[in-house]
Write a structure and sequence with these properties.
Elements: E1 5-16, E2 19-31, E3 36-40, H1 47-54, E4 62-71, E5 74-75, H2 81-87, E6 92-95, H3 109-118, H4 125-138, H5 144-148, H6 157-169, E7 175-179, H7 187-204, E8 207-212, H8 215-221, E9 224-229, E10 232-238, H9 239-244, H10 249-256, E11 305-308, E12 311-313
Parallel strand pairs: 3-8, 3-9, 6-7, 7-8
Antiparallel strand pairs: 1-2, 1-4, 4-5, 9-10, 10-12, 11-12
Length: 322
């Protein structure tokens, strides 16, 4: 089966006065149709820049300096602006954390959905209306008719996010990149949207890249997990295996810092320090200054090693398996 999305050796750098920020530094990802990939890491790890790079939404001072992004076999890196516009929104779409980044506050929902449809194909108004209503219904909005004629400020945060998801689904894309789209929502609404996205992925075959720092979200949604740190993938594999038996010390630290994992009466475990500045990373493993297992070997950058069973880890001293 052809992968819905295949990323190989992706490097996205930002050229600033202070130096070159290697926000994404050699990322490899593969996702099959109908699968959900959780891209996990702390703020500043490069997750969002990876998502924006996949869609070709990087502007100066940033640019993709190396690598390949193939969407159902079609190379996206290097496409001219017009060719990229034809692909973006139709074959691959993005859902942002803040729906107000997607929605224009002075236009009604129907106007915005019709514009999104007509950007890629001439659709009569009646047909566009039916497609918009169907998309709003798919994301669980209780009254699509009323929502269609509303302005964004007249909708709750959860409803606005559903509208943003509906717009992403209008052209039945092969891949959707979702950048922490439920972070600002309360837990009950978050749970509803996660269920709907899981169902939509299974029903329509869309491949979903879910960018998040929240491992609880990943555990209930993703089939596979890729853990990112300082611009690189440090661990990846089936979600159940990664969460049950992490092999990279950073993944273990992320899991230990989840509040639900803390024992009553004991302090919440924390990863010491913070992600280093990406302007001038020292050679070797970027995590070594925060890692209790680091030694002189870690002054050299470890390659990502295949552990079998679709598991891989970038570490000289991986944790034991189950």
């Amino acid at each position: 089966m052809t992968a819905a999305l295949e990323v190989r050796g992706l490097k996205t750098h930002f050229f600033t006065r202070d130096g070159v920020v290697k926000a994404v530094d050699g990322v490899d990802l593969t996702i099959a149709p109908g699968r959900v990939l959780g891209l996990v890491g702390e703020s500043g790890s490069g997750k969002s820049v990876t998502g924006l790079s996949v869609l070709g939404l990087i502007d100066p001072p940033g640019r993709i300096v190396e690598g390949s992004v193939r969407l159902e076999g079609q190379e996206l890196v290097g496409l001219n602006r017009e060719a990229a516009r034809r692909v973006r929104g139709r074959k691959i779409a993005m859902i942002f954390q803040d729906p107000m980044m997607t929605l224009n506050p002075v236009l009604r929902v129907d106007t915005q959905m019709f514009m999104a449809l007509r950007a890629h194909e001439p659709v009569p108004k009646d047909a566009a209306r039916q497609q918009a209503l169907a998309a709003l219904g798919r994301v669980g909005l209780p009254d699509p008719e009323q929502c269609l004629t509303a302005y964004p400020h007249q909708l709750s945060g959860g409803m606005r996010q559903r509208v943003a998801i509906a717009i992403a689904l209008l052209h039945s894309p092969s891949v959707i990149v979702a950048d922490e789209p439920t972070t600002a929502l309360d837990v009950s609404i978050q749970g509803q949207i996660l269920q709907e996205m899981q169902r939509l992925s299974a029903d329509t075959g869309v491949a979903l890249v879910w960018i998040t720092h929240d491992l609880a979200v990943v555990s209930s949604l993703a089939h596979d997990i890729a853990v990112m740190y300082a611009g690189r993938i440090v661990e990846q594999g089936p979600a159940e295996d990664v969460l049950a038996a992490p092999r990279h010390p950073y993944t273990r630290g992320l899991l230990d810092s989840v509040p639900g994992e803390a024992q009553p009466g004991k302090k919440l475990a924390q990863i010491p320090g913070s992600i280093p500045a990406l302007v001038d990373l020292p050679p070797g493993c970027a995590f070594r200054a925060r890692c209790s297992r680091a030694d002189s070997a870690c002054e050299t950058m470890p390659e990502i090693a295949d552990l079998g069973g679709a598991r891989a880890v970038r570490c000289f001293h991986p944790l034991e398996g189950r």
